[in-house]
TrEMBL record:
Name of the molecule in the record: Protein-export membrane protein SecG
InterPro entries registered for this protein in UniProt: SecG
GO BP terms, alphabetized: intracellular protein transmembrane transport; protein secretion; protein transport by the Sec complex
Pfam families on file: SecG
UniProt GO MF annotations: protein-transporting ATPase activity
Positions of region (Disordered): 92-121
Keywords for this protein: Cell membrane, Membrane, Protein transport, Translocation, Transmembrane, Transmembrane helix, Transport
Length: 121
């Protein structure tokens, strides 16, 4: 089960990094306006509007992969095995006699109340 969680975590991290890169590469809505008036090169690797479609669709797919991997990690993080080996979850009665429970000293007596500790004349 740890292998599955590690693979899902790796997929999530790669999708997050790729999504960050794709979002930073994209141009804003106002970037095309400058190219329309001749102040920049409007040509690109994918054509005038092809890059926006390709990059936005790829970012959307990566966002979906990130979302699904997050849900899968939440599911596997919440799933617990039937018998956990946690010391904190085992009841005190389950400790065998003569084991660590018999070596624990008795608790000290409770201190006196606050009113009894105030000095008087």
């Amino acid at each position: 089960m740890n292998v599955i969680v590690n693979v899902i975590l790796a997929v999530q991290m790669l999708a997050a990094l790729a999504m960050i890169g794709l979002i930073l590469i994209q141009h804003g809505k106002g970037a095309d306006m400058g190219a329309a008036f001749g102040s920049g090169s409007s040509g690109s690797l994918f054509g005038a509007s092809g890059s926006a479609n390709f990059l936005s669709r790829t970012a959307a797919v990566l966002a979906a992969v990130f979302f699904v991997s997050t849900l899968a990690l939440a599911y596997f993080g919440n799933a617990r095995p039937a018998s956990s080996g946690s010391v904190l979850e085992t009841p005190a009665a389950a400790v065998p006699a003569g084991g660590p429970a018999s070596e624990v000293p008795a608790a000290p007596a409770a201190p006196a109340s606050g009113a009894a500790q105030i000095p008087t004349k």
